Amino acid sequence: VRHFTRGHEFVAPSGDSQLPGWLVEDDNELQRYKREQGYCRTIEDLCPHVPAGTISTCEIVAHPECERFRLYTLRERLIDVEVHNVPPPAAAAPADAERVALTEPLVPQQRIEVEAKSGRQRGIFSSTVLAIEPSQIAISRPARLQEAMALVVGDRVTVSYQGRVSKYVFETAVRSVREGRVDLEPPGTIGIASRRSPRVPLRDSTVRVRRVEHGGEELAGTAMDASIQGVRVVMSTALPQWERVRVTVSLPDGPLDVDGEVVRVERLGTGQIAHGIYFTSLSPDDISRLRRLGG
């Protein structure tokens, strides 16, 4: 997490060009480097897995967490480039080249997620785009399990969908509600979802997941990353989508104990299962702690 606060300032010191300027200029950090932790080029920070007083990479010290952290920061930089990059004119690209727009438009039959941030049904619901019209977007009635999302004209909702380049998000209002169908106002702007609530990688963070709808059965897992929206947890047991749970996550400043629901389930190549758990009961203090987590 400390890496995000550096601002990537790399001013080479006069004594050792392999170390960043901030490390030499900060006496406390330099002492930590000499006595406690070495410098890892992979995450561009001090790392407890690198021997004190040495410079290395995660490949040399065989620590996959550092590589995952590096890939995360690389992805964030690519998104920054994507956001600020101006697409070249059509004539600048070869005729047979595939062009990917900055914002990939919605298309009929596309799966979307509809999020209500207030009210009794706060949470994420699944839906499908039925039709795209100039004056409105028609979607199926958002639902999860056997529960339909209760919407009325004028309600504000957040819609997100996955494209080939990124995940996109926009806010809109309900225009009309019919049987099995909801009409939404066309969005003014569409943004990249990851900029709204960036995920922060967690190192060796344990998680307890209590299945409140199944007698309180408790499972253990590992948190890969977290944000103000939720946490990604890897476990050996698969939970069904939309199951409500109670999650306890080990954060640097102590455990975070909140209610949540499973919104995504993904089987990994290792045989483990990754679960996207959406927080549904964050207090103001919980939100402050998660914001501090990102630096």
Describe what you observe in this structure.
The protein is α+β, with helices and mostly antiparallel strands. The chain folds into three domains: 2-83, no CATH class; 111-195, Thrombin, subunit H (Beta Barrel), CATH 2.40.10; 198-293, Beta Barrel (Thrombin, subunit H). It has six helices and 18 strands. The protein has helices at 21-25, 27-35, 58-61, 64-84, 193-196, 284-293, and strands at residues 38-40, 45-47, 55-56, 111-116, 123-133, 136-140, 143-144, 147-148, 156-162, 167-178, 181-184, 191-192, 200-211, 217-226, 230-235, 244-251, 254-267, 273-279. Strands 4-5-6-11-10-9 form a six-stranded antiparallel beta barrel. Strands 13-14-15-18-17-16 form a six-stranded antiparallel beta barrel. 20% of the residues are buried. Residues 1-16 and 86-102 have low confidence and may be disordered.
Rough outline? elongated
Give me the count of strands: 18
Q: Figure out the total of helices.
A: 6
Proportion of beta-strand residues: 35-45%
CATH C-level category of the largest domain: Mainly Beta
* Rg on CA atoms, Å: 22 Å
List the domain count as a whole number.
3
Give the topology string: H per helix, E per strand: HHEEEHHEEEEEEEEEHEEEEEEH
CATH architecture classification of the largest domain: Beta Barrel
**What is the CATH homology-level superfamily of the largest domain?**
predicted glycosyltransferase like domains
| Sequence stretches where pLDDT stays below 50 over 5 or more residues | 1-16, 86-102
Q: According to CATH, what is the topology of the largest domain?
A: Thrombin, subunit H
Whole-number mean pLDDT: 76
Report the major sheet: 6 strands, antiparallel, barrel
